[in-house]
Amino acid sequence: MAKRKIVTGNDPVLRTVCRPVGAVTPRIRELMDDMVETMRDANGVGLAAPQVGILRRVIVVEVEPGQVYMLADPEITASSGEQEGNEGCLSVPGESGCVRRPMNVTVKGTGPDGNPVTVEAEGFLARAFCHEIDHLDGILYTDKALYMNEPDAEEEENEKKPEKMSPAAYRKYKKNRKDR
Ligand code: NI
């Protein structure tokens, strides 16, 4: 296994519809293994092949440590219910946003051994599959977010606490706030 570089930002590979895999070759198995290693190294719960620059329909998901799913050509064949919750993405570092997803999904695909796999996923696992499968169609969660969070807002406020400032700094602080 080898760690691969994660693509971030406005790279067009994140906006491309990926090609189906078809037969799972040793090369695709190697890609799956590398993606698991890369995901774990980055403390992620899922990764899609375009995030490591490969435009093929492959995802890995590991919401519960040790319970890893590696799928080629994954498809959501059924979904029900609804949930709203926060998502982040290794390709969009430092951000998070609230996304509406189905509560339950059935995912079908091909496993690393070439056999068909069906996963009944609920809650956060369902969310992870939806997020990763979207990547294969060039879709990022930021496209679907109901709103984006401001993770640093509180920290920033603390940093700028007026009582810790000199009078001159405080005047500047107030002016900046007004100018926003
Ligand atoms: Ni992502």
Describe this structure in words.
This protein has about 180 residues and is of the alpha+beta class. It has a single domain, classed as Peptide deformylase (Peptide Deformylase, Alpha-Beta Complex). It is built from five helices and eight strands, in the order αβββββββααβαα. Strands 1-2-3-6-7 form a five-stranded antiparallel beta sheet. It has a three-stranded antiparallel beta sheet with strand order 4-5-8. Strand 4 (about 85-90) and strand 5 form a beta hairpin. The chain starts with about 25 loop residues before the first helix and ends with a helix. About 30% of the residues are buried. Residues about 155-165 have low confidence and may be disordered. Nickel (II) ion (NI) binds next to helix 2.
Brief account:
With 180 residues, this protein is α+β, with helices and mostly antiparallel strands. Helix content is 29%, strand content 29%.
List all distinct small molecules, including ions and cofactors, that are bound in this structure. nickel (II) ion
The shape, in one word, is globular
Give Rg in angstroms: 20 Å
What is the ordering of alpha helices and beta strands?
HEEEEEEEHHEHH
The main pleated sheet reads as: 5 strands, antiparallel
CATH class: Alpha Beta
Query: How are strands sequenced across the largest beta sheet?
Result: 1-2-3-6-7
Q: Name the poorly predicted regions.
A: 157-164
Secondary structure: helix percent: 25-40%
Count of discrete domains: 1
Number of helices: 5
Number of strands: 8
The CATH superfamily name is Peptide deformylase
**Gap between N and C termini, in Å?**
49 Å
Mean pLDDT: 90
CATH architecture group name: Alpha-Beta Complex
Specify the structural class: alpha+beta
Q: Looking at CATH, which topology would you report?
A: Peptide Deformylase
Strand content: 25-35%
